[in-house]
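Dear support,

I submitted the protein below through the web form. The confirmation email said the job was done, but the results page showed an empty box. After a refresh the structure appeared. I'm attaching both so you can tell me whether what I see now is the final result or a partial one.
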Amino acid sequence: MAAVLCLLPALAWLGSTLRTPSPQNGYDLAAFGRLPVVKNGRIKPLDTVARTTLLQLQGRQRVALPSPAIPGAHADGADTRRSISPSEWLACLVFDSARADILKTFEITHPELLALMHVTTDDGDGGKRYSFQQLETRLPDLERQFQLARDIEAKQRTPFQHAVTQLYSNITLYQQIKYSLIDPASPDWLAALTTLQQNLHTDVAAVRAQVNQQPHDADAARRVLDLTRRFQLMADFGNLLAIPPTPSPASASPPPPPPPPPPGEDDRRFVWKKTGASLLEIFDTGQINPAALTWAGLAHAWRAGQPDSFNTILRLYREALDTRYSPELRKSDIETRFNSAAPFYTSTVLYVAAFLLAILSWLRWPRALGLSAFLLALLAWLTSTAGIAIRMWLEGRPPVTNLYSSAVFIGWGAVLLCLALEWFYGRSCPRSRSTSGGSESRTASAIGTAVAGLIGFATLVIAHYLSLSGDTLEMMRAVLDSNFWLATHVIIVTIGYSATFVAGGLAALHVALALTPRLLNPALDRNLAGMVYGIVCFATLFSMVGTILGGIWADQSWGRFWGWDPKENGALMIVLWNAVILHARWGGLVRQRGLMNLALIGNIITGWSWFGTNLLGVGLHSYGFTEKGAVALGLFFLSQLILIALSFLPKGHDAV
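What the results page shows now:
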């Protein structure tokens, strides 16, 4: 009963994440966020564009509001909000960029870069976030430093050069989005477009007369040439394809969805178009695309503070799209709800709660707290399962397609194994006598749950930091364009990673428990050794089969079964090391403590195969060097070595 009562608040909180966001100050920003655009070869909602952009710029999704509020912002006197949603920030950026420019969305932490941009920690939000307005005057200096850093190989750059490159990339992205829907410098973009539409023939005639040095209306010619320049700037600099293709009058069927980008090609080959490119076509077609007028109308309503007009334009545009793009809109709707619900963040919090309850169960109320911890871990796993399933549906792919999804799936598989251990071992684990009160406690009853919470939390934190680089549903490279191999080799070898980390997690917990002999009795010591041994057997099987399948895939893709690629070598190292553990155990070379230390070394080898090989910058599986990634991996290796050293402290019983 106590376990059920503990689960109810978690269920209530989980349900609250599924609520539809309410309109802010009358503007239906949820509907705005659901509008589809194309970026990097994928139809995605504007909500996703906003969230991934903010994660890249500042490492979080909400934007802090300045105090006092933004001048002219859509807020009444009762609005005391401290932050705005990603969709509201994006609307502010693309429709009224002057207001967005004072929002502090650029994260800068390097002291030399702060000095270059003439800002201090006192100027920033939280001491590290700054506005475009604060940085704008120093952009020429930033560009000069970027030109110097650009020609240096990433691994050879100094921390300052890495920071310069990152900030320059972030500002470029910010400006590209700013120019994607309207001309941000125009005071009334809708009026400019409607005036051009009404006077198109006479204005174009004036330009032609000017070219031919004939009498003409100079103002009309200047107006057309100025708009043409703005259209070209939007076409060159904008990065969102916001104009859907229009079917030919002879065909009632909708045009096909955009294909993934071919290697080396940009978005201009797609059927969706940039707003600027579409506007340039007016001189050939004689008509402005209705979608371009829609974006201009939304900008006009936003700047004029007319939420009713804004919402009406949204509704009409949505209805027009629904007749031709119903499947794409349905996916955009689901993806927006998925973003808002944030199932992996919810799982992260639940894993922490499960881990803490599992630890507490070893001290007091083992049955109630142990069962509560198990149920919370199970709820977190089910939430992650739902998140993975939705991602698979959105991508049309198996669960592992990039580093981000590998982190999520490794945690998912590891937690599943831990819950299975808890279910089968926890009910039959030995009881130990508490020295404080003489009562019985089932110390091992939450072992699997504790490791599940630890690994689940760690892998989702890793996934969060991987998401800072951009869209986590991005299209794969051409060699990975095979659902069969993604569903076989990648999944199987990733399960091998999961199992090896579970064995290492159990070993880490064994070392921690051994520091308190009251918790680690000889019977529990043997029980943990049995768990680690069984998981290593499981990991060996999946790692070996996955590696062999990878060789077959390589033979089909590159014409060779094995090429000593760093990733291939890492996979082989996992197989060989797990085999070493098993042979050492079978041959009596190690007992409990030795087995645990070998499993901890397995964590190091698996971490190297998973992430370390990507940091080398060479091979077919390299995704680029990152200084933060190298530091994090080094700290992980150090933590495992410290645990191995701690295992040699004197124990209350022998475990060589």
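Response: this is the final, complete result; the empty box was a page-load delay. The first helix runs from residue 2 to 16.
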